[in-house]
Amino acid sequence: MSPLHHLREIVREIAAQHQGNASRLKQELGEIETRKAQIETELRTAHRAQEREASYPGQIGMDYACPDCWVRGVQSPMRAIGSNNPREDHFRCNTCDRVTGAMVESW
After folding, report:
1. DSSP helix/strand/coil, 83
2. Which residues pair with 103 in a beta bridge?
3. Which of 61, 72, 65, 73 has the alpha carbon at shortest distance from 94?
4. CA 102 to CA 107: how far, in whole Å?
5. How far is Cα 80 from Cα 90, in angstroms, rounded to an integer?
6. What whole-number distance in Å separates Cα of residue 44 and Cα of residue 34?
7. What are the strands, taking DSSP E only, across the chain?
8. What percent of the chain has pLDDT over 90?
9. Which of 42, 52, 66, 106 has minimal Cβ neighbours within 10 Å of its Cβ?
10. What is the DSSP letter of 61?
11. Mean pLDDT of 74-85
12. Angle in degrees, CA 67, 68, 72, rounded to 5
């Protein structure tokens, strides 16, 4: 085997290794792009949070509005789920399932 033939074999092996990496790298890039989109969404939410805080309605119809969903730009009512503490009511969001406690006013 001539040196040139041998070098071409080496080049072919190296090229095959790089081609084998391509699918793995494409998958990694897809995961990175997905994570980037998630971060961008979180950043948009963070930038709008103060504005959303100022416009929190407290209620949606007769139900209390979920504060977490509201800050994220979603209007979602919460339902009463009771509490063992007579001075606090608990509510569960119909969308994100968050449980929120609220103090009951004293008479």
Report:
1. coil
2. 88
3. 65
4. 16
5. 6
6. 16
7. 59-60, 63-64, 78-80, 88-93, 99-103
8. 54
9. 106
10. T
11. 88
12. 115
Give the three-class secondary structure for 90: strand
| pLDDT of 107 above 60 | no
What would the two tokens of residue 44 be? 């948009």
Query: In the Cβ-directed half-sphere of 82, how many Cα atoms lie within 13 Å?
Result: 1
How far apart are the C-alpha atoms of 48 and 37, rounded to whole Å?
Answer: 17
Give the separation between CA 63 and CA 30, rounded to whole angstroms: 41
**Any idea which residue has 């504005």 for tokens?**
51
Provide φ and ψ at 22, rounded to 5°: -60, -45
| Phi, psi dihedral angles at 90 (to 5 degrees) | -115, 145
Lowest mean pLDDT among 67-71, 82-86, 97-101, 103-107: 103-107
pLDDT of residue 28 exceeding 90: yes
